[in-house]
Design brief:
Layout (H helix, E strand, L loop, with lengths): L6 H15 L7 H8 L21 H6 L8 E6 L5 H15 L3 E6 L2 H18 L1 H4 L17 E4 L2 E7 L3 H5 L5 E5 L14 H6 L12 E6 L8 H8 L3 E6 L6 E3 L6 E2 L9 E3 L6 E3 L3 H6 L2 E4 L9 E4 L9 H11 L3 H11 L13 H6 L16 E9 L2 E9 L5 E10 L8 H6 L8 E2 L5 E2 L3 E5 L4 H11 L11 E7 L11 E5 L5 E12 H12 L16 E2 L6 H7 L2 E8 L2 E8 L7 H16 L6 H10 L9 H4 L28 H4 L4
Parallel strand pairs: 1-6, 1-13, 2-4, 2-5, 5-6, 7-13, 14-19, 16-23, 19-20, 20-22
Antiparallel strand pairs: 3-4, 7-8, 7-12, 9-10, 10-11, 14-15, 15-16, 17-18, 21-22, 24-25
Helix pairs in contact: 2-4, 11-12, 16-18
Length: 668
Amino acid sequence: MTLQFKRSALEVVANAFADVLLPPVPMPPSQWATENLVVPDGPQAGAAWDLALTPYIKEPLDLLGPDSGVNQLAAMKSAQTGFTTLLIAAIGHSIDRDPCRMMIVQPTDAALSDFNRDKLQPAIESTKALKRKVAPQTSRSSEGSTTYSKKYPGGSLTLAIATSAADLRSKTIKKLLRDEIDQYPDDLDGQGDPIEISDGRLMSFLSSGDWKKVDISTPTIKGASKIEARYAAGDQRRWHVPCSHCDEEFVLEFGANFRFEQTFPHRAHYVSPCCGSIIEAHEKNALVRRGRWVATNPRPGAFPSYHFDTFSSPFVPWDEIAKAHISAGDDPQKLKTFWNLWLGLPYEIKGDAPDHKRLLERREEGITRGHVPSRGLMLVGAADVQMRGIWVEITAFAPNRESWVVDAFYIDGGTESFDAGAFERLAAQTIDREFPDAFGRKRRLDAFAIDSGYRSHVVYAWVRKNQRLHDITGRDTVLAVDGRDGWGKPPIGTPSLVDIDLAGHKVKKGCQLWPVGTWPLKGAFYADLRKEGLRSGGTSDPGGYCHFGSWLDETYFRQITAEYLADDVIRGKIRKFWKLKASERDNHLLDCRIYNLATAEYLGLSSLTDDEWAQIARIRGLPDDAWRPNLFTQLSAPPERPLPQPAPVAEAPKDDIFAKFASLNARN
């Protein structure tokens, strides 16, 4: 009988014997990466890792080596800086030169799959030193590697997710790498902080001091950011570069010394803080290569912590930073993105809404209930289901995120059944209703969201019954939504299929459930509420300004300002969260507005270009440039005409562009 072996299996066995007989020669991780690592993705994909391109990676990478004397470090960074490659290089060096049991934690299963598919596995396949040691990825052999486990002589790498306590508690490890920790939940189903749970995997090595831990992340919200706290606990190192004129060192950072033109070409440049000389954009990379890390807060017990952003990144031109800043304007959502992804800094949210009486005083007489204003090119609605009724808000948005309350009301009635009580009247007052616009045309909702947090299966059934594709957008008109706590959540996430009914039976086609990141949206909405416009003596209404008609009563304004940003101490750590004011009982219309914002993002509110908005106006049959504020701001609504008469806002009882929307919104 002739035995046949796969070549890859023989190679792994042979290499294992070789590794036992010939122990690896000590080598700093940065040297190993320079000699071995092939970059898995990005602009340098397929090329050998070049230390000269990202010199700032060398120090933190070498501190992850076995002989550095450092156990832990943290890096608070922006996007496009190369720090993910640091994780790949640290993993590769350990597999080849210091094999042991390791774990890398990603925030979600999707993030883990992307990391393995796009970064880790390609690096293993293209780096000879790793391919010869890591067992091939196969699902048919317990000896092979998988998406969730890489096996090699002397150890293994576990790929875990921060939302699984089983993953985080499963193994004793020597090295722990955590990526994008700001996306981790604060608490894992009542079992504790995933960061603290994963720290427990290192416990067996604490007495010997032979352990490593690294946290890397883009920050989110100031005071709530996990990586901000980790950075502050360390010695806070910044990348200092020498002035090209006087050699004094300073940090390239966003502020008064960064100069640019407001219009293209931006001609971004930097004024050195030491001698006032001009540093042109083309000089940046040469300066960065001469830079060094300097601890700005050294003290006993402080571990190395790093902050690095796009200003010193070789991958991001200064003109692009200027462009991003100009584009963000005063839009809270875009400003948060700019601070987080471009500056690598946490964004500060002012958590207090303006006094509801101030909003009541700035109501506008020219806004007619039930009518769409001239610049309201996007019309959405949202509902919040309660035990004895349903709250609804209809909102129109302009391209600059200005908003108008078109209607707000409460539908009284039971909510136990999707085809009786309040639900029986919901469609007629929302998705089947026609809204006159400022030009005499009739509009219907572009999308309608309904909160499924209460009476979930009734909501799913109502959505299935009333689902239809919008005749212009080509997308689902009715969305079942579910609010998600946390600062790292997008305005509207990837939907999941809900196809089991209350009786446990599978439902044909089911219902899509859309997750909504409510916390950042509330911060953005409250920032918009504080903006002052024409009625406060300003020269114009700024982007995001919220318009309210005189027909809205005090109940409406009390509800939309019913929450504030509170601090809570959880296991010794301060956490920021939204809390209902002690003086208020209801926040249903606030929830409706947040879901309206999410639904507008679903339609592309923040991603459509000016040309695309202009095309929307043409498809709607509106005059040219209808989206421009200076042209139609003064247009009044047509005379009041008969409308369906929903109940007034009152307290609940105690007990080709739109046709292209599918592709346009794929980028959201």
